[in-house]
Design goal:
The chain has two domains: about 260 residues, Spore Coat Polysaccharide Biosynthesis Protein SpsA, Chain A, CATH 3.90.550; about 120 residues, no CATH class. The chain contains 15 helices and eleven strands. α12 runs antiparallel to α13 and α13 packs antiparallel against α14. The two termini are about 10 Å apart.
Amino acid sequence: MSEDTEVREATVEVVVPVYNERAELAASIARLDEYLSSMLPYGYRITIADNASTDDTWTIAEQLSDRYPRVQAIHLSEKGRGRALKQAWLASDATVLAYVDVDLSTDLNGLLPLIAPLLSGHSDVAIGTRLARDSRVVRGAQREFISRSYNLILRTSLGASFSDAQCGFKAIRSDVAAELLPLIEDTGWFFDTELLVLAQRAGLRIHEVPVDWIDDPGSTVDIVATARADLQGVWRLIRGLANGRISLTRLREQFARPAHPSNSLGVQLLRFAAVGVASTAAYFVLYLLLRPLGAQAANLISLLATAVANTAVNRRFTFGLSGRDRLLRHHLGGLIAFGLALGLTSGSLWLLQALWPDAGRLVELVSLVAANAAATALRFTALRQLMSGSGRGSASDDGSADADSPEDCSPDSRRLSSASSLARSRSPLVSAPGRQPR
């Protein structure tokens, strides 16, 4: 097979998104091409994706594409790493699509473990992680703190199960990318996070590779602006998944994966606590506003209003359920929990008035806080028991389902066979010793 044919029929395409990288682009591409030609037993292509550079980056990229047979370059008129990756990946005919940062901070020896499970059909997306126990990372304390804090935010707010959203070392199957990428709205640094969150919610399998990584001290990334954009992106995803604007039904059906398992107990507790804080605050505001009606009446109305809202929010946000399936049962269960909470709080008020008729408003509120804490624990236990058995074998639009689904550990032979056939048809496996020298 000629090299031109091998480039056209590449099994793996590695995209290098660049913006004003004239200083290190040539050296990085030379190093990447040398590594791939000697170590990767598949046909490959390197694509330099220049997103609106204002220096000589595009000129250098064109020169590199002329110098190296397996290198090509594309130019975008608008800035954005996510935009560059999306355009390059959607235009590719390779079986597996990967990307690496131009500084090559991640050790390239992690590349083959990254793409192997995608070529076999075992996984759909693969990421390098700097936060695994076996990772070897050299970077400053500030970046370490920011990275871990960001991933903690993703776990608590979006139920993310992947460990590192921002490592510039990822790969995806091309058939998955064709369906997933059109759903991604971000065109900048949040692109990676959005891709992973949607993939997880759709039930796609994400493979993680511990990597060796050395921080680039010359990085020009604006940490503050990036953090602000990331938090805005997190909020957009929360709203989009909660109100159904982001629908993953087609993606899930296309790839026949079981839906993403329901959140762990720890994540559910954190979310339930967040909802509980908001619910309790709303309860006390209503109670104080309605107190002229009498303590018991104000307590009844406030509890009823917040209980209905609490059940609806927890159903969606905490337990990941949507749609009308068992909706009435869930709300009836919530009302039963409300009745128990009413009994606890009303009983505490009755007992307080019986034992201390002249108790002030502050003592009354303290008593209600204690009773509400007990009622909250009871409500969480009841709702979790009620909703953990819902949706077994089915999925909601946000990609949540019960963790006990028997499909969760079942191999998908049809997908694996399809992936393997696709890889073989596009570019035959070339053993390293038999590669044609350039």
